[in-house]
Amino acid sequence: MFNKILIANRGEIACRVIKSARKMGIKTIAIYSDADKQALHVQMADEAVHIGPPPANQSYIVIDKVMEAIKSSGAEAVHPGYGFLSENARFAEALAEAGVAFVGPPKGAIEKMGDKITSKKIAQEAGVSTVPGYMGLIEDAEEAVKISNEIGYPVMLKASAGGGGKGMRIAWNDEEAREGFQSSKNEAANSFGDDRIFIEKFVTQPRHIEIQVLCDAHGNGIYLGERECSIQRRNQKVVEEAPSPFLDEATRKAMGEQAVALAQAVGYTSAGTVEFIVDGDKNFYFLEMNTRLQVEHPVTELITGVDLVEQMIRVANGEKLTITQSDVTLTGWAIENRLYAEDPYRGFLPSIGRLTRYRPPAEVAAGPLLDNGKWHGDAESGPAAVRNDTGVYEGGEISMYYDPMIAKLCTWAPTRAEAIEAMRVALDSFEVEGIGHNLPFLSAVMDHPKFISGDMTTAFIAEEYPDGFDGVKLPEAELIRIAAACAAMHRVAEIRRARVSGRMDNHERKVGSDWNVRLQGQSYDVTIAADQDGSTVTFEDGAEVRVSGAWTPGDQLAEMTVADAPLVLKVGKVSGGFRIRTRGADLKVHVRTPRQAELARKMPEKLPPDTSKMLLCPMPGLVVKMDVAVGDEVQDGQALCTIEAMKMENILRAERRGVVSKINAAAGDSLAVDDVIMEFE
Fold first, then answer.
1. Which letter, b or e, does each residue of 478-516 get, where b requires 16 or more Cβ atoms within 10 Å of its Cβ?
2. DSSP code of 587?
């Protein structure tokens, strides 16, 4: 076995590889840019080598710099993670020439399957059904428009060497094809060092289901079930689960066998993923093969008990697979939510800054385990598992130079319903402050009827949130539970305030039992009766709600039992009450005495400032270009400027007709959130 492995990556996946290598007794070497000097993967590794400036195209994807790090550290093998150089055939070739093992497939398989254009041609030749498209190279935007018209809109423009949603655009007309072609080329060049683009028909109602394969160099190949990845935003996966709630055993077997056959046809070794789109009749079509470890691999590990990183390292060491297809059993259900540094209230635009608070839920080991190919332990019952794969820590920086993913939160349970409920509690327990993040949106998805039913497609987010995400309106039953909890918490805080030392003699403060709770536009008059085990909160209609749990004033997380069910609240302080975040909702909860509530109803409502005639920068970023000038009349939907952040180009468009009266920024300027880019008459 190898003594030293260098991880040619950063962040969460580098930390993940280090964990398996450490378990196997292998020393690890991290590489890092200037921006990652204090990163978690650098702290976890046994050694670390500096490789250059923050931009990936000057550090992490520069093959010569990575090769220098390998040579200086004495690494015997390299794990590429995902993204960066993981699907770069030239990198695999350079390692082979240096006599260093690549923890991944051989160069030939990467060239044939890692390139989306080539892989589609091979699949077609092998008789695999593929989506209609143009597999040749496209020279310019006008040729992209011509090809798009021949295929028929809508079309998908994709970076040939891409992944992770980078370099991908959907075009519904000629103008979007032109814009999308250039943006896709730019993103592909910046992220992968390869700006080739191809075009295929965009199937509007597909499910995205992928098969995990594992092959060795001795002719053995297996598939480890599927992952449902249909919930995506801008072609970037947000929620994944295994198995799929849609597939039956016959379809799973057919897809799995086809995936393995395709992998073996190109001499594939290591872990890889064959992606399909599946229609409502369970017809499946090959999309592409990712010749690397997938971001969402933990859900497969949780339902199979197979450590995919360990298996990749063993295969790279020349070992045979010890697991046969008959050993693979899908047990229970696993769900993964990707926590991104993206603000859902600002159209999911990237957010950067310091993590002033980062407290993930406690990890719980449970579920199936595999020992030498055999199941052991009670995998059909017991507590849910919670797993959090991350590459950040409290006090660390979220950089503008890299992917905005903060963590991958996973839960496992014997059934899908239990796994979803475990995920709801885990999301409510996850504390993140200092940046915008998508925790509220993930909570909303977990409670969405369409997701709960399992009847979703890749159009889920576009269909269910057509106007973006503006928070969650909780149902009446949940509001009552939160109101009861907040009333009990406020009473505890009032008792503490009443006991403050130094008060005047003969002025003892009494804490009453009658309160008014106002939240989400609702008002509840309640009476609290407390005892040693908790409180009973009685509402006007006589309904009683029992509240118990440990919460001390100042705690930012309240884990309570309300009406015999768990309730986890993130708690902040506002004047006269709390800021409560739970289940995707962000609530101001005011708890007042009856007299205070009466007076509060007479107060005028404070209105926000009018910014309707301004274009505000929705995220920290760099101005790529300005599309308009002072005096221009703009139309609804017209492109105004392009902002780049976290390797993604974001086109800001006019929300209504108007005339540009002032422009405050130019190409090359760095902007902060809410900087005024331009003003209108």
1. bbbbbbbbbbbbbbebbeeeeeeeeeeeeeeeebeeebb
2. E
Tokens of 285: 């079509």
Amino acid identity of 622? L
Q: How many helices and strands, by DSSP H and E, does the chain display?
A: 17, 41
325-329, Cβ contacts within 8 angstroms, sequence gap of 24 or more? 325/222, 325/223, 327/370, 327/373, 327/374, 328/222, 328/223, 328/224, 328/225, 328/304, 329/304, 329/368, 329/375
The answer to whether the beta carbons of residues 240 and 335 sit under 8 Å apart is: yes
At 114-137, the pLDDT tens digits run 777 778 888 877 777 788 788 778
Which H or E element spans position 522? Answer: strand 522-531
Is the separation of the CB atoms in 180 and 157 below 8 Å? yes
Buried b (16+ CB within 10 A) or exposed e, 412-426: bbbebebbbbbbbbb
The label of the residue with tokens 């520069």 reads 62
Residue 25: both structure tokens together: 């007794």
- On the question of a cis peptide bond just before residue 243, with omega within 30 degrees of 0, the verdict is yes
Residue 326 is classified by DSSP as: G
Provide long-range contacts, Cβ within 8 A and 24+ apart, for 361-365. Answer: 361/386, 361/388, 361/409, 361/425, 361/426, 361/429, 361/430, 362/386, 363/387, 363/388
Catalytic residues: 288
Structure tokens at 278: 């599946």
Q: Mean per-residue pLDDT for 287-316?
A: 96
Q: Give residue-wise pLDDT tens across range 348-386.
A: 878 888 999 999 999 998 655 444 333 333 444 456 899
Find all residues with CB under 8 Å of 598, minimum gap 6, and list them.
Answer: none
Report the SS3 class of residue 535.
Answer: strand
- CA 567 to chain centroid: 24
Could you give the angle at the alpha carbon of 357 between the alpha carbons of 82 and 518, nearest 5°?
120
**What's the pTM value of the predicted model, to 2 decimals?**
0.83
Q: Say how far apart CA 25 and CA 295 lie, in whole Å.
A: 24
Three-class DSSP labels, 218-247: CCCEEEEEEEEEEEEECCEEEEEEECCCCC
Rounded CA gap, 60 and 32, in Å? 8
Calculate helix-pair angle for 11-23, 308-316, nearest 10 degrees: 70
Best CA proximity match to 339, nearest among 272, 285, 392, 384: 392
Q: Which of 389, 562, 381, 602 is nearest to 482 (CA)?
A: 562
Q: Give the single-character DSSP code of 130.
A: B
